[in-house]
């Protein structure tokens, strides 16, 4: 490993600063364009040894666990706390611009809808029991080391205030010192904690864990690998003003603010459509809202999510007809012939995107499409399929949901021009 002086010129797609060298680009985590650094370099990866001349645009990180000098290690939850806010917003927008450009899609990308500290209602923690305590936090980037957190600026303060309770739950359950994950969702009725990746518990282990957990207040549900351990009260979230209870470990958007921004954009795109198909519908984030105006067919691969959506629709008075279908849309996308019953389609797939579904949409007569994505690269691929099928991309909006990370959400509006 050699230590050299490097000048950082730009941010890469993963949020690392990039220095150009005779041997190609070197990626330096926690650096800022304009920094001059002493860097230990191994292959194309750099580690900051000293910041000899910091960029004047650097800002002070807000969290004690951030960066190479972070308390208990460099927390892998955030990589961009030190970045100038204007550069940060342009960086996230740029991820979308570059992805679309790489597929030849020429469309103006809107300004980033910003995220703010303290908004995250959902987090997936890494956890491990030691002799003395439960380590709970986020893995250091590229490592199994868990940065044990005492604060977190992206999470809702009400979740940070419950970190010790979450540790009690993890400690009560963990049968050994192996690492596991705790997905925590703050709901209107209390914390919904889904433990994943833990060895199977004996009946005795479950009973003693339940006795400990029941002493805590404000826990709505605890589940282990999708199986409910206790549910003192049903976890409830609101999609707009419609109440739903997502299944244990089921998908929910990480912040209410980003969810509402996406839902508003989706409603605007769908407009006055009479019949809408919501594909990859989850527990009904978009479908339930849209059913206040339009007839909706919601399609989703996860059976418990479909059941949650149906239950929420049954409980709510006054919705237009809402039908559901459990279907693997990768293997069995909705065919162009089935899509002719809809004026508008919403799709919001996982990171892999919706390639086979986009091929069927490209052959369809659907007038309007709202494409929602958490991965600009697969979105660009899917949009290029739709454009080749005659659609026009009319608007693209990036939305920040994972503050200070290199992730960005996107809502794209497409129309099939009238012949
Ligand atoms: C990004 S989430 C979006 C969910 C929902 N639209 C929302 O905003 O809450 C993607 C959804 O796709 C579902 N999914 C993943 N693979 C699928 C497949 N092959 N077929 C159908 N649904 C799938 C997941 O269960 C998840 O609910």
UniProtKB/TrEMBL annotation:
Residues noted as binding S-adenosyl-L-methionine in the record, renumbered to the chain: 253, 280, 300, 348
Class of this enzyme: transferase
Keyword tRNA-binding: no
PROSITE patterns recorded: SAM_MT_RNA_M5U, TRMA_1
An MF annotation (GO) of this entry: methyltransferase activity
GO biological process: methylation
Sequence similarity: Belongs to the class I-like SAM-binding methyltransferase superfamily. RNA M5U methyltransferase family.
Protein name per UniProt: 23S rRNA (Uracil1939-C5)-methyltransferase
Annotated organism of origin: Rhizobium aquaticum
């Amino acid at each position: 490993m050699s230590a050299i002086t490097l000048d950082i010129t730009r941010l890469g797609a993963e949020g690392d600063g990039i220095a150009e060298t005779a041997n190609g680009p070197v990626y330096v985590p926690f650096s800022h364009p304009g920094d001059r650094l002493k860097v230990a370099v191994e292959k194309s990866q750099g580690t900051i040894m000293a910041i000899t001349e910091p960029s004047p645009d650097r800002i002070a990180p807000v969290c004690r666990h951030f960066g190479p000098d972070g308390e208990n290690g460099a927390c892998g939850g955030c990589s961009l706390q030190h970045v100038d806010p204007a550069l940060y917003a342009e960086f996230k927008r740029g991820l979308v611009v570059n992805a679309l450009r790489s597929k030849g899609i020429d469309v103006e990308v809107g300004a980033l809808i910003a995220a703010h500290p303290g908004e995250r209602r959902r987090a997936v923690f890494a956890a491990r029991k030691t002799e003395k305590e439960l380590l709970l936090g986020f893995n250091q980037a590229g490592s199994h080391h868990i940065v044990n957190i005492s604060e977190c600026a992206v999470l809702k303060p009400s979740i940070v205030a419950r970190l010790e309770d979450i540790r009690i739950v993890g400690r009560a359950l963990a049968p050994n010192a192996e690492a596991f994950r705790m997905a925590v969702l703050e709901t209107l009725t209390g914390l919904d904690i889904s433990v994943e990746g833990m060895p199977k518990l004996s009946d005795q282990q479950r009973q003693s864990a339940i006795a400990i957990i029941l002493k805590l207040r404000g826990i709505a549900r605890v589940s282990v690998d999708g199986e409910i351990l206790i549910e003192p009260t049903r976890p409830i979230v609101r999609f707009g003003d419609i109440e739903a209870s997502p299944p244990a470990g089921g998908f929910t958007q990480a912040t209410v603010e980003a969810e509402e921004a996406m839902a508003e954009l989706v409603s605007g795109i769908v407009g006055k459509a009479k019949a809408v198909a919501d594909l990859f519908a989850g527990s009904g984030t978009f479908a339930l809202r849209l059913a206040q105006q339009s007839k909706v067919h919601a399609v989703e691969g996860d059976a418990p999510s479909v059941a949650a959506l149906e239950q929420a629709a049954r409980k709510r008075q006054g919705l237009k007809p809402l039908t559901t279908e459990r279907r693997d849309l990768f293997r069995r996308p909705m065919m162009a012939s089935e899509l002719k019953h809809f004026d508008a389609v919403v799709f919001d797939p996982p990171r892999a995107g919706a390639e086979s579904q986009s091929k069927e949409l490209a052959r369809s007569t659907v007038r309007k499409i709202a494409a929602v994505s958490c991965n600009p690269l697969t979105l660009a691929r899917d949009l290029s399929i739709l454009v080749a099928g005659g659609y026009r991309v009319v608007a693209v909006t990036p939305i920040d949901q994972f503050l200070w990370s290199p992730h960005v959400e996107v809502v794209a509006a497409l129309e099939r021009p009238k012949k």
